[in-house]
Amino acid sequence: MRKVYSLQIQYPEQTREFDSRLTKTGRRSLSHSISHSSTDSNSSGGSDAENPEEEVSPRDMQQMNSKGSRDFCIKNIKLADFGRREIELAEDEMTALMALRKAAQGEKPLAGAKIVGCTHVTAQTAVLFETLVVLGAQCRWAACNIYSTQDEVAAALAEQAFPVFAWKGESEDDFWWCIDRCVNVEGWEPNMILDDGGDMTHWIYKKYPHLFKKVKGIVEESITGIHRLHHLSKAGKLCVPAINVNDSVTKQKFDNLYCCRESILDSLKKTADIMFGGKQVVVCGYGEVGKGCSAALKAMGSVVYVTEIDPICALQACMDGFRLTKLGDVVRQVDMVITCTGNKNVVVREHMDLMKNGCVVCNMGRSNTEIDVSSLRTPELVWQHVRAQVDHIIWPDGRRIVLLAEGRVLNLSSSTVPIYVLSITATTQALALIELFNAPEGRYKQDVYLLPKKLDEYVASLHLHTFDAHLTELTDEQAKYMGLSKNGPFKPSYYR
Amino acid sequence: MRKVYSLQIQYPEQTREFDSRLTKTGRRSLSHSISHSSTDSNSSGGSDAENPEEEVSPRDMQQMNSKGSRDFCIKNIKLADFGRREIELAEDEMTALMALRKAAQGEKPLAGAKIVGCTHVTAQTAVLFETLVVLGAQCRWAACNIYSTQDEVAAALAEQAFPVFAWKGESEDDFWWCIDRCVNVEGWEPNMILDDGGDMTHWIYKKYPHLFKKVKGIVEESITGIHRLHHLSKAGKLCVPAINVNDSVTKQKFDNLYCCRESILDSLKKTADIMFGGKQVVVCGYGEVGKGCSAALKAMGSVVYVTEIDPICALQACMDGFRLTKLGDVVRQVDMVITCTGNKNVVVREHMDLMKNGCVVCNMGRSNTEIDVSSLRTPELVWQHVRAQVDHIIWPDGRRIVLLAEGRVLNLSSSTVPIYVLSITATTQALALIELFNAPEGRYKQDVYLLPKKLDEYVASLHLHTFDAHLTELTDEQAKYMGLSKNGPFKPSYYR
Amino acid sequence: MRKVYSLQIQYPEQTREFDSRLTKTGRRSLSHSISHSSTDSNSSGGSDAENPEEEVSPRDMQQMNSKGSRDFCIKNIKLADFGRREIELAEDEMTALMALRKAAQGEKPLAGAKIVGCTHVTAQTAVLFETLVVLGAQCRWAACNIYSTQDEVAAALAEQAFPVFAWKGESEDDFWWCIDRCVNVEGWEPNMILDDGGDMTHWIYKKYPHLFKKVKGIVEESITGIHRLHHLSKAGKLCVPAINVNDSVTKQKFDNLYCCRESILDSLKKTADIMFGGKQVVVCGYGEVGKGCSAALKAMGSVVYVTEIDPICALQACMDGFRLTKLGDVVRQVDMVITCTGNKNVVVREHMDLMKNGCVVCNMGRSNTEIDVSSLRTPELVWQHVRAQVDHIIWPDGRRIVLLAEGRVLNLSSSTVPIYVLSITATTQALALIELFNAPEGRYKQDVYLLPKKLDEYVASLHLHTFDAHLTELTDEQAKYMGLSKNGPFKPSYYR
Amino acid sequence: MRKVYSLQIQYPEQTREFDSRLTKTGRRSLSHSISHSSTDSNSSGGSDAENPEEEVSPRDMQQMNSKGSRDFCIKNIKLADFGRREIELAEDEMTALMALRKAAQGEKPLAGAKIVGCTHVTAQTAVLFETLVVLGAQCRWAACNIYSTQDEVAAALAEQAFPVFAWKGESEDDFWWCIDRCVNVEGWEPNMILDDGGDMTHWIYKKYPHLFKKVKGIVEESITGIHRLHHLSKAGKLCVPAINVNDSVTKQKFDNLYCCRESILDSLKKTADIMFGGKQVVVCGYGEVGKGCSAALKAMGSVVYVTEIDPICALQACMDGFRLTKLGDVVRQVDMVITCTGNKNVVVREHMDLMKNGCVVCNMGRSNTEIDVSSLRTPELVWQHVRAQVDHIIWPDGRRIVLLAEGRVLNLSSSTVPIYVLSITATTQALALIELFNAPEGRYKQDVYLLPKKLDEYVASLHLHTFDAHLTELTDEQAKYMGLSKNGPFKPSYYR
């Protein structure tokens, strides 16, 4: 039940973009496992989930919370108590957001903000939305994914009179209907957009473009959504500022280096159940993801080879103690091939024809293009589905390779997103909303911005508490000597 | 489906020993996951498994293999083809045994051996037993665990006229009946015992003690079984030599250091789903298991503290870069407590009363005594079962600790045994049988022996191939200079 | 003999800048040890070196090389053979420059270039200058440091009719005279400047500003020189483009992360002779230098604490497994304090008053300001000079701290610069000269530029050969997919 | 001045043994660098050292300490104050011995002991001898090496009326005369021997065998001395018990694993000045020394290959992430070859003929036999002595290899012994003396013993203080459960 489902909707002009959703961004759709298990036990308890054909659509139900409000559309309001417990557990873990609530509560920096949100609806994002409310905002919220909603969490929000429109198992029509219900309400003119995938933004552009006059900005988290915003921007059609929260330094480091360092091991254990010690592995690409994977496997006693196209990254691989090689030169001898390039056709049929029996092939990069899986769908090769995420591809001579997740991003398929990453993302989103809402006229143009360095640093600082970590403060004298403000930013904006 | 089941049989005089079965030894009962999944898919296909009450006992069935033999008792002979595929996959992985077949096939070192075996019945052990046959032995085989038999593997053996008596879900009575069927057959006098847990040995002692006149030796793998043999030996009742294969250097290093280095990460991810980076952890005990756990967590970016009672191990912890501390001194600040001591009451209620909210507590040591779990079963604490292997214990103030596997050995409960360890065990068993069967009169007395150093080295050498590793051979001159034989042993017997 | 001497010249208006020369840049003044030892044995052979007062100044000598040329001024032309051997040894090590000679020799990209150089005069820089000549340039060369010249290398160049003006032990007057002799020659109008410290540039600005009309650009390596250029640029006085080769990605990574990872260990062993295992260390600052130092000490078994002011770097320290703390919180318990901040007064008297007996204090940062050494020069403290680079400061209670290099940058004082770093610097300088000389009109304005990403990558690629490292080349299809040229640059210019 | 000098005395029957002194044991002759530098500055001050031919032998001098005693023979009593400072500095570092003084002072466990000692005479050993006196012993002391005496330390002891007979630069005749003066004194019958190399024991056997009636035991530290004792024992001539302090677990771990982990880096930097990052290295032998070297180089970013003859060690190398290979298979490509086998002719001419230009060859093993250096002394190869410990061997084609320390043990030649190892050795010696002196009749026979496990553990525990390390104590219940005494020993005697 840890799979990330892609949006299965097909409509002509956007097929490509929806395909590309199965990207790293997708990871955020995984709610933390505690919540998940609860969901599971819950849904397995409900017979509805088991017999979808008999189900009454939430759109056809008449539900009301205990305060008499009907401004929501969810699966089952009765799940509210259970969902509230989920949210409370998540609050324990989202310490940065809770600290932000405390720090900014007095000044209500979002007073007057009317936010329409379209993200996954989980216990963690619920903590985010309730934080926005604490900080003064009004919100309406739909799901960005038809499968990822935790119904009990939605119920808990609805019970608190939070207008939420989302359930697990929406149809395509439901999906857009829910989004519309966030925007198109009498007496409500949203002035901020919190988006994850660009669908809310797309919908407003398409249906209610006039609303953009009031909108102060868009905060977008997914690569796909950012891609769409840049597209708009290039075409001169972006009419409000947007902040790209995906590429903040803090988020990037965690998403790529630190998470992959752990999830490569986790994912390989869960799928191929391989012992790492003594194994020969080739890691294709030595960016942050490749660095994380290589370091983890080296630490576990694997012999790691690295391939690279960029001489600077290549030199780093050398200095970190990895043999830099071409894939073709080691592919016969290695026990695993891991792609982390973001490129296409990095592992092709010619390579796979040379692999030794039992070689594991998987992808930790950004898309499902790195391994040319289609080249394996030929008559002479036998595919044997061994278990979830694992296929054996058998050559006529009996030799088999072990293909994981059919070449899709492995840790999206088989690992959970650490709560820490969810927390960084949510905190960044909150700060980006505050920044855009309060920015003086002229600070932001109609363009796509990175999170200002100072806010990026603030997100990081809110997360240090978990580690019982204590920052040193500059003295006045030191700040002057360095030409820095005592509160940062401490590095130039390009610093990574 | 990765749980290790302990034998649930209760009979007065052996309760304690059967309890202690949930030890590290138990890990071998886990078959490798590939086989496992197949088993699962298979059994879920069969309606028998689902409706146990309707099931006909194998003892009441009349089955015959394609060659007309009926000398076996298993669940379903029709599963033979499927089981054969499992065995063939396992052969691919048990390269050391396959190499041994080739190396020793000509000389048939087990010609004349009549072996009764009582071990888990899985694809991997099937490769062992078929190897024994290739080397000249006759065998009869029962399961050492009432739940661990892979029925399709048993079928494949039966189809090859291998006398096997085992099925998944035996009753206690079935269990001893199967063992008896291995021993008590007309015209069959076993002269070797391959045991795992000591039940076969126990049965023969109890029922057919006269057989020991012909028995050349016992090969025992489990800690429990070895404990029983030492008990017999001390009481002067051991009447044949026995080899303890559990404590071979090769097996020990893999079981403890190398496996735990990987399984601590794997187990924690699967259960607590914790991010390791930046977490503070205290590892209690710095033996091989503690060394493996500490090294792995340090490599993943945790801050690791170590506790020890032995100053020599303590000094090693210091030199390896760990702060040596008492548990009480850091228990308030750490995010995880991992016991690896083999001792009892290492973590007690007083410690747990001080832990911070969310602290994870688990045991990687040898028994379920290290954490005083019973002290948590008091009225003021609430237990919340979150998912398999995970309980939250909630204090009156709302603080919760996360207890894994109820204090039992974590990686036995939540991780698989690497095939590599199964291979080392099986190869060691085969060599120990050959050694005892062929040893000249007088080499072994009626005592419990460790595997001779030279054979231990041979087991290691058979496993180097997997890593494409090439040993250097001593020249004559070098061997003379070192006072060594060119074929080993290369170290004194006490060398670890 | 590994000390870096600062320029001892005092003249009012530039005191500050000359002081700051004892910076990381200074490291390049250390010639590689092979050359050094040779120098030593050579100079100890010559009586001149021993009796400086009797020495005849090179300016007063009449020397001629074997071809009859007198256009040079050096210590002793007879040392030429010996110097040539030094240069040949250096050529073996400067493989990137030798590869560049081969790659670019045909096209003579520096044909027409008239370069005046002012750098250290060592075997390694000689390989650079002779490379420039091979690529078509004419050069005249003076030393940028009055102590660092290898006289035998200067002789070897002079013997090849290379106009070099440099000797070990120049006076201030000699220093400027030598520079002048590079510029002020009849029939010679330099059109490129290769500078290290900014003195050549300064001299031309002051004395021959008209020459700038012909000058195509300046290549500057030192932090001091770059600082001066930026100063000129801000003041609108920079009248030609300049390339800052100090801040190339490749050079920075090597200078800071990779070198410091090794030199922290080397320097501590050479000075304090400390055992690292089990020691508690606090590293102040977690930039590249701090990362290198922390990683190395952790690998050697030290327990490392980190202090930071920047939350993003702080979070990285946490994820890398270091306790983030304030200096004051651990200063009582640590065995070593290492500063890597680039800031001032990071370790002050209050800290040192609390340190335990034997605590080692040293600086790996950018200047000599990080440790407030002046606060230790008070009557109640006794300074005991134990050996080169090591002072014991003794408190009235007998407690002593071990101060290394009097708080100056430790590895500049006690470690050699790896040849690899010298090679990267020299190759970068050569490519920057080629770039500026051949750049089409308008590509560079009158400003200070970083090395273009593509050249940075080229420098890296020229150094991969040493590691027998093989780059992967993009296929056409892949390059298109990524939107990259097959020859790079592969990353945006801000990528680090 | 960090060289270890071997005893240059030649006498027929012992040549071999004296040769073998240049073994790891020799390292203890290196006094800690602080003392060393002091010595140096001191001796360079005295003109005697500079003009040995004019020197008056200490044997011909009439010296008296301030208390009127003349029972000593040293270089110069006037150096006493200076030497006392050295000893006091050493006391700061020998915390374990100082703790032992405190712990055992009351009971005077050596009251009645009359110890003749023959070890290096340095500040550290002085702390040992003064500890013995504090614990009740009377001592007389000679040097075990004609070059290693610190004259100022000897003076400080003499000033305290400690009978010491040692100076730097003894002749062979002096050497034995000094030893004789320890033994052959009226009214003095030694009952304990503390030896380092076996010369004191040898002398007593040869000249005063009757003394052995009173001798309670011998404590010997060097491999050579232990070899001699075993020789005596086998020949049935050993007439008192002896304890081998060299092979205590604590000492071995430090001498081999922990020291070599640091000294391989230190030694290579000091000699070859190589950068480790990205270099390919082959480490021959994966015992403790090989493990230390491999781990350190891997941590510094080298790519490490390992060769082994023992499959168990080989498998460990694999699991630790090293490619196991034969030397011949990688010798063409590596940048360094390091021997750690204890064997002979591990690197032979055939290997060296294949090495690439600049390959560094060195030995960290136990003797000077591992590299066949003699095979390089052929006419076609040119030896070029580059600096201390470094020779270039140049092949006719210009290719050169870099041979360190002429194949002798590298870290003995170029690194200092950490004070920590000296402290462990001295503490072990003291405890061994106490044990033998107080052992009840019959505990020890006329044989060579290892240090009892419990004392080995005690040595370790005395050293934990330095690391601020806190041992956990067993509860009564735990001790009973484990079948252990609360005070240890905690492991079986064979545990390493």
Overall structural class of chain A, as computed from helix and strand content, comes to alpha/beta
Please give the share of residues in helix of chain A: 25-40%
Assembly status: homotetramer
Strand numbers in spatial order across the main sheet of chain A: 9-8-7-10-11-14-13-12
What is the straight-line distance between the termini of chain A?
A: 35 Å
At CATH level 2, the architecture of the domain at 31-215 in chain A is 3-Layer(aba) Sandwich
Largest sheet of chain A: 8 strands, mixed
Number of strands of chain A: 15
Average the pLDDT over all residues of chain A and give the rounded result: 87
Helical segment tally of chain A?
A: 19
Radius of gyration of chain A equals 24 Å
The name CATH uses for the topology of the domain at 31-215 in chain A is Rossmann fold
Q: What is the approximate shape of chain A?
A: globular
Low-confidence runs of chain A:
1-52
CATH superfamily of the domain at 31-215 in chain A: Adenosylhomocysteinase-like
Which chains share the greatest interface?
Answer: A-C, 56 and 57 residues
Strand content of chain A: 5-15%
Name of the CATH first level of the domain at 31-215 in chain A = Alpha Beta
